[in-house]
Amino acid sequence: MTTAPHHLASVFVELAGGGGQGPPGVPTLLKRLTDRSKELLAVRATAVTFSTGARDAPRVAASDADVRRLETDAVTWGEGPGPACRRTGRPLGGTALSGAVARQRWPRYAPRALALGCTHTAALPIRGHSGPVGALVLLATRRTALTGDLMALGQSLADFAAVTLLREHEVEASRTLAAQLEHALTTRVVIEQAKGALTARHDLSPDAAFTVLRGYARSHQRLLTDVAREVVEGRLDPK
């Protein structure tokens, strides 16, 4: 396995989100990792799973659609090289899919992978700050030996991509939090405006005005925010 240094460098730049393409986002970066690792490692297919917490649904990407479906099912089953690698946080060396070990450990995964023309598999951890956050799965045919050098390059790709993945995940989380805070603020503002409108119209206290708003929303099975907005716009008087 020989790769021109300039091509290898360009792949790492791409995984870092460079090259003038702008921030890649997690889905794009996962797809880049699978495509470039398949190319550089010359394997039949690759797949990657990524999630930063136990409550987060793992994101799955693969170099082709059939493998993506297989790896998505593997996550659901909790079996296969990807889930095994994610659990231990350690590389899983080349394993024959037709062997007794694979068939015993992965009774659903191994036959599916064999049906896709793969004979061997390996997996490499994607490491986060405090533990594994995913795995890079390699699926190979007999033509490609899953050697130590190949595994080392694959781990380098996974380690490098992990930095960008975690960065992009944090950016996404920040955007989501900002949107939630903005929505909460907007909701609070319109409710306060509606309370003020009812206070002025009917000589109510702010607490009494809120009770009126809430009671109307509940009795009509409507969102409090929608009721408040109509009050502010003069289209509704719940009193």
From TrEMBL:
Residue ranges annotated for the ANTAR domain, each copy included: 171-232
UniProt KW Cytoplasm keyword: no
An example Gene Ontology molecular-function term: RNA binding
Alphabetized InterPro entries for the sequence: ANTAR, CheY-like_superfamily, GAF-like_dom_sf, GAF_ANTAR, WH-like_DNA-bd_sf
Keyword entries, A-Z: Transcription, Transcription regulation
Protein's UniProt name: Transcriptional regulator
Originating organism: Streptomyces paromomycinus
